[in-house]
């Protein structure tokens, strides 16, 4: 078995955490891994097959031989650590860029959480508990967050991404940005994010793993339009 | 080296505590340490905002480098100071994988479940209490399967990240009899020098709370 063939990924379409892991596998030249696409709509993430590997019933669910790492950022760090010398380097060497990379990578988790708290408010919060004040607060927090990322990308250009060259910060954050535009974010209102998106959308690892479909897109394709 | 580092922190905050443990483990005592008060809103003060536009603690600088995300700071310190202090990443591949898994699972234990919010309905409160109990039971199960540390035989970044949350839970009254393996873990790690030296000052002479005693 090649290294990749001893890897098994269970994933769902449109999930940024799944996409992060798939981008990393491409970047590290680990194509050829075993994989299975599951449906969130059909609750397949709670199936026995997933629960046997991941008691949390979440995707991604990932095994490398007997090693299980379902946490997407943990898995990406593990892959970069274990396959340092193959594929593209995803953690910069220079201390300053490395620190910035870790900073933006972890902030990327907060970014997604704020986006989902607003865009999927009615999906996560049962009807009896929804509050206009909470929805408004989530919206305001998302706007603040997006403005922060616009500022982080002030000087974005080719090879001048979140921490210099393409890195794990971009592996985590690009899927968030793609998510945002898929759900209607205005490129005119967020020109730096739009530029970042356009610079990276055709990167081979990203193009090869683009989500076949975004979750609930039929209902939600404009939910970020007025942000 | 440590003299070029500055940490702004608040007592009892697991994210702050993580970075303090990491600094001790890597032999970086002597950093500029500034304790701030959440109650007085000092985390939103000018000092913090100058380093961290999010107005959150920890706020950490190393020379001109800024790293406010606690996970990021801990990983960076381990990477940059590989040759000194204690090694926080296991050599063994299986332990390393488990370290990454538990480290990031630690986010579920703290952020999703326990952070209180003023607007929770009773049904939400009940649901969250149920989820928190299930989450803690999961970790009890993890400690039954492996030990003495979270990734196995050696103290690692997983413990640096997660132990402060476990300590926080026991401080809030988690019952040692309901969760004996976590209690044993807590009792083992709390005497580790890096942990003892950075124990929240406001916890030392005051009793904890009992919010979690019935969980």
UniProtKB/TrEMBL annotation, chain A:
Organism superkingdom: Eukaryota
Endpoints of the signal sequence: none
Protein name: Glutathione S-transferase rho
A Pfam family hit: GST_C_2
Coiled coil: none
Domain GST N-terminal: 5-87
GST C-terminal domain residues: 94-223
InterPro entries: Glutathione-S-Trfase_C-like, Glutathione-S-Trfase_C_sf, Glutathione_S-Trfase, Glutathione_S-Trfase_N, Thioredoxin-like_sf
Source species: Poecilia latipinna
Gene3D superfamilies cross-referenced by the UniProt entry: 1.20.1050.10, Glutaredoxin
Record-stated family: Belongs to the GST superfamily.
From TrEMBL, chain B:
CDD domains the UniProt entry points to: GST_C_family, GST_N_family
Coiled coil: none
Annotated ranges, domain GST C-terminal: 92-208
PROSITE patterns the record matches: GST_CTER, GST_NTER
Top-level taxon of the source organism: Eukaryota
Region (Disordered): 196-215
Residues in the signal sequence: none
Pfam families in UniProt: GST_C_3 (PF14497), GST_N_2 (PF13409)
Annotated SUPFAM superfamilies: GST C-terminal domain-like, Thioredoxin-like
Listed name of the protein: Glutathione S-transferase rho
Organism ancestry: Eukaryota, Metazoa, Chordata, Craniata, Vertebrata
């Amino acid at each position: 078995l090649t290294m990749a063939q001893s890897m098994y990924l269970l994933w769902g379409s449109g999930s940024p955490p799944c996409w992060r892991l798939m981008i990393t596998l491409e970047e590290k030249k680990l194509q050829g891994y075993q994989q299975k696409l599951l449906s969130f709509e059909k609750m397949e993430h709670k199936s026995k097959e997933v629960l046997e590997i991941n008691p949390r019933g979440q995707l991604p669910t990932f095994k490398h031989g007997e090693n299980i790492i379902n946490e997407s950022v943990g898995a990406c760090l593990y892959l970069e650590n274990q396959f340092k010398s193959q594929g593209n380097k995803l953690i910069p060497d220079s201390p300053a860029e490395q620190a910035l990379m870790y900073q933006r990578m972890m902030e990327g988790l907060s970014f997604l959480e704020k986006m989902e708290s607003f865009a999927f408010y009615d999906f996560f919060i049962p009807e009896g508990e929804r509050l206009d004040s909470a929805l408004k607060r989530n919206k305001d927090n998302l706007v603040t967050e997006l403005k922060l990322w616009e500022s982080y990308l002030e000087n974005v250009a080719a090879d001048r991404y979140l921490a210099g060259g393409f890195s794990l910060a971009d592996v985590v954050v690009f899927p968030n940005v793609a998510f945002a535009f898929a759900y209607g974010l205005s490129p005119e209102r967020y020109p730096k994010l739009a530029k970042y998106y356009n610079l990276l959308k055709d990167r081979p690892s990203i193009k090869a793993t683009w989500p076949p479909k975004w979750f609930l897109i039929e209902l939600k394709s404009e939910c970020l339009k007025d942000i | 080296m440590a003299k070029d580092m500055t940490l702004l922190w608040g007592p009892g905050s697991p994210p702050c505590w993580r970075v303090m443990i990491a600094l001790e483990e890597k032999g970086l005592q002597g950093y500029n340490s500034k304790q701030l008060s959440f109650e007085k809103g000092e985390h939103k003060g000018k000092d913090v905002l100058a380093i961290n536009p999010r107005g959150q603690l920890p706020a950490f600088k190393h020379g001109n480098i800024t790293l406010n995300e606690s996970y990021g700071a801990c990983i960076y310190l381990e990477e940059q100071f590989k040759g000194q202090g204690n090694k926080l990443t296991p050599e063994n591949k299986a332990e390393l994988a488990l370290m990454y898994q538990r480290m990031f699972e630690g986010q579920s234990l703290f952020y999703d479940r326990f952070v209180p919010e003023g607007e929770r309905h009773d049904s939400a409160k009940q649901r969250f209490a149920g989820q928190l109990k299930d989450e803690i039971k999961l970790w009890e199960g993890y400690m039954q399967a492996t030990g003495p540390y979270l990734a196995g035989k050696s103290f690692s970044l997983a413990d640096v990240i997660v132990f402060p949350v476990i300590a926080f839970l026991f401080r809030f009254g988690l019952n040692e009899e309901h969760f004996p393996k976590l209690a044993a873990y807590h009792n083992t790690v709390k005497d580790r020098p890096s942990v003892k030296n950075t124990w929240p000052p406001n916890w030392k002479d005051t009793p904890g709370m009992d919010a979690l005693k019935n969980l």
